[in-house]
Amino acid sequence: MTDQAFYPIGTPGQPWGDAEKAGWLARQVRHRSYVDEVVSKIDALRSRFDVAEYGRLHYGDDSYPLLAIRSRDWNDALPVALVTGGVHGYETSGVHGALQFVDLHAADYAGKINLLVAPCISPWAYERIHRWNANAIDPNRSFRANSPAEESAALMLLVAPVSDGVLVHIDLHETTDTDESEFRPALAARDGKPYEPGGIPDGFYVVDDAEHPQPGFQQAVIEAVAKVTHIAPADGNGEIIGSPVVAPGVIEYALKPLGLCAGVTDARYKTTTEVYPDSPRATPEQCNAAQAAAVCAAIDYALAHR
Fold first, then answer.
1. Can you give the pTM of this predicted structure?
2. For the Peptidase M14 domain, which residue ranges apply (predicted)?
């Protein structure tokens, strides 16, 4: 693969304008149903949890309710665990791992911690199996003041009233083969930059906050997930996706400066998970279970080390 990978939208070296973004949008196709696959599962939880619509997206003729699941026994005296998924809509296990956690494990934390779960932050992208929203914006670089992404702005408004009480935030993601075949070339084309080929790590890993690292917390998540699926090894440079591996399966990003979802609060404990659903060593069921196990381990550690 050459440094300037071909992408069918735009002119190499020139950032996209409105015409290129419109051309990109015209190529996007709905592949699955947010209502059938996500909303229906959230509705099935209403007998046990509170469900709130915290916003609504309108893209063309499409309208998407943004739904959050909350502990029914919410107690302001308790800390809050924030669980987010589907910031990148194509990352399927982030969405369904969050829902699996609520369905199978959330009841275990009643009376211990308040749960706030936003399982599918980007429903338009979920349906189109894409990383960006309809405006060719990456929501996971947009968690900042005056956000250009409605998805990110809506979550920040949801979290704001409880932000000071958030003890732990776990943001569920995937790294897929399409990161390298589609999304990174598209990003380079959109921004008018040369495409630099990279590798896709085979396995689960987490991203700690470089500004406030919590190595024991990250290791607890890794150890729990290792019982479900394999952990990504470092590459020949001692890195995962271009970042130094600071412990098995752990890299660090500056979460807030990068506008990442995991930096949306000042929680003491925060992490971004990444699974690899395209691995021959993993199944979709394992990926969902790994995400749910990561959430449980994160909350357990946070409660034990308050």
1. 0.97
2. 30-306
